[in-house]
Amino acid sequence: MVQGPGPKRLFIADDHSAFCERLVGMLTGIEGVEIVGRAGNASGAIKSIQKTGPDIVLLDIRMPPGAGGFDVLRTVKKQEPWPVVIMLTAFSSEEYRKKCMAMGADYYFDKSSDLKNMLAVIKQLVSGPLKERDER
User: Fold this and answer.
1) Span 72-121, pLDDT tens digits
2) CA angle centred on 135, ends 133 and 136, rounded to 5°
3) What is the mean pLDDT of residues 40-58?
4) For residue 82, with 0-12 CB atoms within 10 Å meaning exposed, 13-18 middle and 19 or more buried, which class applies?
5) What are the angstrom distances between the C-alpha of 130 and each of 43, 55, 85, 114, 119?
6) According to the model, what pLDDT value does residue 82 have?
7) What's the pLDDT score for residue 126?
8) Partner of 109 for a Cys bridge, out of 7, 50, 114, 125, CB 3.0 to 4.6 A?
9) Domain holding 12: CATH number?
10) Is residue 50 part of a domain?
11) Rg, the chain, Cα only
């Protein structure tokens, strides 16, 4: 999705409320980020993302029900314009990373070790216009 000036709209989808609160705390301090919603399950995430139209989605891979984050990713990437999707997991593996990227995720981070890198990417995304996936 390409957006002009102004804050980037960010949505958080994760079933662990304590982790969501931690993310909100970290993201609130970043100028140019507007948190437009949160969801703790896949079906709620899909509905809310379609309603709020965020520029960036932080998406946990393992959320109920079903395939969780994979279902959300598959659905979100069918809509136009699509948001930047940052996949998060506590169960990091090369297999998950490859699957996420093949399905259209833009970034993939391990919750336990990569949050600083994730924040750096978000800061970079909010500092200028978001580019179409083919330009990244």
Assistant:
1) 999 999 888 889 999 999 888 899 999 999 999 999 999 988 999 999 99
2) 70
3) 95
4) middle
5) 26, 8, 12, 22, 16
6) 87
7) 92
8) 114
9) 3.40.50.2300
10) yes
11) 13
Dihedral Cα 58, 63, 65, 70, nearest 10 deg = 60
Alpha-carbon gap, residue 54 to 62, rounded angstroms: 21
| Domain interval for residue 49 | 8-125
User: What values do phi and psi take at 10, rounded to 5?
Assistant: -120, 135
The CA distance from 122 to 119, in Å, is 5
Give the percent of the chain with pLDDT over 70. 90
Residue 39 lies in a domain: yes
| 133: in domain | no
Report helix, strand or coil for 118.
helix
Please count the structural domains in the chain: 1
Which amino acid belongs to residue 47?
Answer: K
* Whether residue 67 has pLDDT greater than 80: no
Name the nearest CA neighbour of 29 among 102, 126, 129. 126
pTM, rounded to two decimals = 0.89
Residue 5 has pLDDT above 90, yes or no: no
